[in-house]
Amino acid sequence: MIIDIHSHLGDILNHGGGALIDRKNVTMEKMWDPQTLNEKQLNRSFGLGALAYKVTKYWATKAQRARNATATLENMQRSLDKSGIDYTACMPIAPYVTFDDLLQAREKDARILPFTSIDFTRDYDITAQIQDDVNRGAFGLKLHPIIQAVPLDDPRVTDALQACSRLKLPVLIHSGVSHYYLGKEKSRNVPDNGRIVFIEKVIRSFPSINFVVGHAGLFQVNEVCRRMKDLPNVWVDTSFQSPETIVKLIKVFGKNKVMYASDWPYGNRIPHVNTVKVACKGNKDLENLIYYENARRLLGLPEND
What we know:
Layout: E1 3-7, H1 34-40, H2 49-55, H3 57-68, H4 73-83, E2 87-90, H5 99-108, E3 112-114, H6 126-135, E4 141-143, H7 155-167, E5 171-174, H8 196-205, E6 211-214, H9 221-228, E7 234-237, H10 243-253, E8 258-259, H11 269-280, H12 284-299
Parallel strand pairs: 1-2, 2-3, 4-5, 5-6, 6-7, 7-8
């Protein structure tokens, strides 16, 4: 069995993004997509990861936005069926896509495991809302300091994390410097909010919360390993990382703290499944941990599910 611990539904970059979920017959606009090449190489950068991203940033961002625009329920279901994924943890990014949007999608497909999010654009009782969302089936909290343009030391983030600590709710944080907006919207990018030093600080501040370091830090994966190797409340997901890097993550954080992820639709599921398979080198017990058991345990799913 396989759980994808990090994926998305809907347009997570624009207001009203939940409306995309139920659209039909959506395909990706044709363009040069650097991620396609990355996936053919099983995310191997050959030492050019950050540099290649810097050189191709415009086209990489443009293609990411095109992928984002394909995040319909219909396309997700097709992806799950094709890749043999049993469950997918879906990350809302409020105010664009909300927990309610994902909860409605879950009613149509039980493979969706929705997380909740904070809407920083309005004034409300964040603690009470998180409690209510957990009561209604939220499996965790998602924070995206770059897209939401809110630093992790914001008092509202602290309030939310205090609630998560009390509720024993896992938290997945986007980590790593990345870009999402172009042209006149470029000012909406706050890439520095994804720096690893900020992620580390908040994780150290809440030792009772199980944090998932999204993408294991992207191109800053070595910094994640260096800064967080001794933190017992750190988990990492494998999205956009090569087999060789996944092997390193297992050595640094332990085989029980690494989880398969694709970040669908930003990443395709099958290439990411293959990166884990190559990393595990035929060890079926290790595959089971990374594909399924670690995420099952983190999310509190029944053992016999």
